[in-house]
Design goal:
The complex is a heterodimer of chains A (491) and B (132). Chain A is mostly helical and 491 residues long. Chain A has a domain at 276-491. Chain A has helices at residues 4-25, 30-55, 79-96, 98-105, 109-128, 132-151, 157-186, 191-197, 205-222, 230-237, 240-265, 268-274, 278-297, 302-323, 326-354, 368-371, 373-387, 393-408, 411-436, 445-448, 458-476, 478-490, and strands at 58-61, 72-75. Chain A has a two-stranded antiparallel sheet. Chain A is globular and about 75 Å long. Chain B is an all-alpha fold. Chain B has one domain: Orthogonal Bundle (Helix Hairpins). Chain B is built from 5 helices and no strands. Chain B has helices spanning 2-9, 12-30, 34-55, 85-116, 121-130. Classes of the chains: A mainly alpha (491), B mainly alpha (132). The A-B interface holds A 133, 136-137, 140, 144, 147-148, 151, 155-156, 158-159, 161-162, 165-166, 169-170, 173, 176-177, 180, 183-184, 189 and B 25, 28, 34, 37-38, 41, 44-45, 48, 51-52, 55, 86-87, 90, 93-94, 97, 100-101, 104-105, 107-109, 111-112, 115, 124, 128, 132. Chain B: It is a multi-pass membrane protein. Chain B: InterPro entries: CPA3_antiporter_subunitC, NUOK/Mnh_C1-like. Chain B: It comes from Desulfatibacillum alkenivorans DSM 16219.
Chain lengths: 491, 132
Amino acid sequence: MNQYPAFLIIAPLLAACLIASAAWLRRSLCFPIAVLGLGTSFLSSLGVAARVLTDGHFQYRMGGWAPPLGIALEVDYLNAPVLVAVSGAALVSLIATRQIIEREQGPKAPVFYTLMLLAVTGMLGMTATGDAFNLYVLLEISSITGYALTASGDRLAPLASLRYLLLGTIGASFYLLGVGLLYMMTGTLNMADLSHLLPALYGSDAIFAAFLLILCGIWLKAALFPLHAWLPGAYSHASHASACLLAPLMTKVMIYVMLRVMFTVFTPAYVFEQISLEGFVVTLASVAVVAGSLMALAQRNLRRMAVYIVVAEVGYMVGGAWLGNQTAWTGAILHLLNDVLMTLCLFLAIAALAGRMETTDFKNLKGLFSTMPFSMGALVLGAMSIIGVPPACGFFSKWFLLKGAIEAGRFDFLAALLFSSLINVVLFFRLFECALYSGDDHHGPGEHGHIEIHEAPLSLVASLWAAAAGILAVGFYSGSIVNNFIKPALM
Amino acid sequence: MESITGLILAKYNYWMYISLMMVGLYAMIAKNNLVKKIIGMNILQTAIILFYISIGAKKGATIPIIMHSEGHGHEAVHAVQYINPLPHVLMLTAIVVSVATLGVALALAIRLYARFGTLEEDEINDQVREAP
């Protein structure tokens, strides 16, 4: 019971090592071990969340060493739901993409599972850790495995992956440099310790430089608009299996890290009163939302469209975090959780469709509602959530963000959000229009009477519907998520 | 004048790491050859490692090993006499990270060379434009 935070991270790490050795004995063992690892992780995250609900913030000391000397995992109201979302989404996307991995990777499938599990280990570690340097190491673990995962894909995947690697390394190096400055000024790397020691130094230029460096590093990794150049290529050329794992999780975990740095390492008092960057950052976020939506509108391919939607969504969360009032923060955190589900649903649906056609160009999508009704049904739910139609979860976080923008008097951000929602309506209804009409006048349904259903593999469709059900469930229970986790987190 | 020499000479370690960092960033941005970009990336990482190493140094201090010979075991440790080992230990991890990143980057470069027959970025871009 008390060991849950350790299990959360050790289970996928251990499973990754086991898979690498099990591959020598029997390849059929690898997938069950991977599911076991991520399943344990998911159950532990539920245990952690349950404990946070009763006890509030708690600490797990790795090896029994007390911080600030030792490294502690800190779980509180902010990261418990993120842990559940990350481990749950990773499990669903692993189960969903099994067939894709086995088909594309063949004898190298165990290596792919190992990379996936290591990437998830890094992301969960980043979410749980209470140590700024430890966060860097885990960031690099998930990034390096992420580069390797995105490198397997179509002809251009290695090029996109190398660009991702170069930019990602600059981001991580900036973060490391910022942490180095913080260490130089305070002599500690522990986040809780930093938050005690920093207020006395808030006037210092070195601390300001450290904050900016860390922030730039995180934004580069999170693909905030002008720094997003790596994302579209990396996620649209990679194998569908990698995209389904990385696209929903990586940027969102980086947004969580940004929130952690803003709220725990530094304080809102520093971020919003001492230095006044919020005006600039919210403008930047508004530009990111508009630019991401417009670039999505310019695409003629479903997958390319989806990656630009991810870019726009990053703008939503960064803007919400920097509007600087409780409502907007609630919206940003809720949107982080929702976006994991929405992006997962969108990318799984794309993987399902792509398994039945050469490319996901819009012209290939004709008549899909009749041939792949289940995948398209889930895609509709995901699209509703991204647009922000009420029963789906996306509506609630968008509502909080809009209210927060009004409270802060930032009508440019408000306009950007509304504009992006309208663009999303156009994006998805254009898509549905393509998919509703068979486009084949000679063999219309009237002549044949019935159309053969040609669905994606069951595991993929089932996981896709699990994600879609998650969207509805989080939508229905968003009130209790806000009251039980997000409100206490912002106290 | 005094303050300018003070700014440059007394803080030469910062100037060194900043120059190295800029060399690395310049190579990553401006070079056309992918291997040169990768070398630039490595210089950038090394610059940050040097920064960490330099903040652990102290004037006149020795390596942080406490002598446990006869009669020395229970003396008080004067932290001033030893350089700070923590940044050095952190950089062991960072070196491992940079080696791993370099390895992945070079593996990708090999894959790109096999696929496009060149490592010049503009030539690769031309090939991509011709046959996407």
